[in-house]
């Protein structure tokens, strides 16, 4: 499974591609940051993010895109920019028919470090270890994108089984009604 992780942000949008399956060593295929100029108007910034994500999709051909679920922060301007960048990533993937999964920050931290309250340094250290890298990816947005991809690879089999069970339940329920 090849997953593009996206840590959305309006100025720095972390991107990272991880390949592998749960229970086996994972391989990093690419990591970076899509940037948009802070002094540009919003429309141009979103276009810059879209073009950057499209380049990553063209180059890496992921089977899934994992995006950090936007959560309410104290700074409304920050959460709006994050939500807009998140929507661009989801749109780019959906336009190509690539499934999108949303993961909360605590879900990603728990999957990668074992603690939903891990700090950025702990996440970076575990990403480095899990992908057998020489050093943590910089900036932290890039490491977070890899953590999102890892989380999705590890959680996808369980999520798929759950979805299949729910679908089977609804199918049998429909026959008895």
Which labels suit this protein?
single chain; 177 residues; alpha/beta; five-stranded mixed β-sheet; 5 helices; 18% strand
Descriptive overview:
This protein is α/β, with parallel strands linked by helices. Helices cover 54% and strands 18% of the residues. The chain contains five helices and five strands. It has a five-stranded mixed β-sheet with strand order 3-2-1-4-5. Strand 1 (2-7) and strand 2 form a beta hairpin. Helix 1 crosses helix 2 and helix 4 (120-130) crosses helix 5. The chain is globular.
Offer a quick outline of the entry.
With 177 residues, the protein is α/β, with parallel strands linked by helices.
Multimeric organization:
single chain
Q: Please, what is the average pLDDT?
A: 92
Helix- and strand-based class? alpha/beta
Number of helices: 5
Q: Report the β-strand fraction as a percent range.
A: 15-25%
- Please count the beta strands (DSSP E, at least 2 residues each): 5
Tell me the major beta sheet: 5 strands, mixed
Which strand order does the major sheet show?
A: 3-2-1-4-5
Sequence-ordered SSE layout with sheet pairings:
Layout: E1 2-7, E2 12-19, E3 27-35, H1 42-60, E4 64-68, H2 76-95, E5 100-103, H3 105-113, H4 120-130, H5 140-176
Parallel strand pairs: 1-4, 4-5
Antiparallel strand pairs: 1-2, 2-3
Helix pairs in contact: 1-2, 3-5, 4-5
